[in-house]
Amino acid sequence: MTFVLVAGAWHGAWCWERVAGHLRARGHRVLTPELPNTGAATLAGWADSVADVVSREDGAVVLVGHSRGGIVISEVAERIPERLRRLVYVCAYLLPGGATLAGAARADPGSLIAPNMIPAQPGVTCVLRPAVVRDAFYGCCTASDAAWAEARLAPEPLKPLVTPLTVTAERSGSVPRAYVECTGDRAVTLAAQRAMQAALPCDRVLTLDTDHSPFLSRPAQLSGWLDGL
Predict the structure, then answer these.
(1) C-alpha angle 61/223/48, rounded to 5°?
(2) What total of structural domains would you count in the chain?
(3) pLDDT (tens digit per residue) in 85-129
(4) For position 206, which CATH number holds?
(5) pLDDT for 36-54, tens place per residue?
């Protein structure tokens, strides 16, 4: 099986190292495309680039998105649903057509993200206030893992976050969906995750008692479940 893993906001392909290693050890092919994080980045451009990666593979692909990566994989599914075996949302934004990630994030009152975003390049990119990064992303990770990850975070382009999704039930909605919910998540709270699942049901759900970064805090459990799919 081929897995394509898409990172979330501020993160990059590096965050999947452990999960990718576990999956490869189980015999799977794993790709972790890097999305550009310049101010010129767009949601359509991200989706096009991931769709191109998927389209070059033989056979159907399991497409996995973490956090902000959820809106990317939904847009990819709108483009090439026939090339996808399944979408997997890892504490990710699972949104309907016309919604924006920024709007969904602001509607999540328990999240540490929206109130702690500060400009990097004003009006173009943003970062998260350093004092909340550990609690927002890595609360169940070891101190060394959290420090390793924090040192690799990069500014996030703003434009994709305010771009309405252009997805339909006929195309993106035709691909089977699974969800990995994280009960201790302080970036996309469990209440928000479950509200999104209620609106757009998934046929498989894994519940992990962990933070927003199961690829670091629970990589073996996450990888084993993905393998089982």
Answers:
(1) 35
(2) 1
(3) 999 999 999 999 999 999 999 999 999 999 999 999 999 999 999
(4) 3.40.50.1820
(5) 888 899 999 999 999 999 9
Instruction: Indicate the pairing of strand 177-182 with strand 2-6.
Output: unpaired
User: How is residue 124 written in tokens?
Assistant: 């173009």
Q: Rounded to whole angstroms, how far apart are CA atoms 67 and 50?
A: 16
Q: Identify the CA nearest to 28 among candidates 57, 6, 53.
A: 57
- Identity of residue 9: A
What span, in angstroms and rounded, lies between the C-alpha atoms of 199 and 95? 8
Its pTM surpasses 0.85: yes
Domain span at residue 105 reads 2-228
Cβ atoms within 10 Å of 115's Cβ, excluding its own: 11
- What are the residues whose beta carbons fall under 8 Å from the beta carbon of 37, sequence distance 6 or more? 12, 125, 154, 155, 156, 157
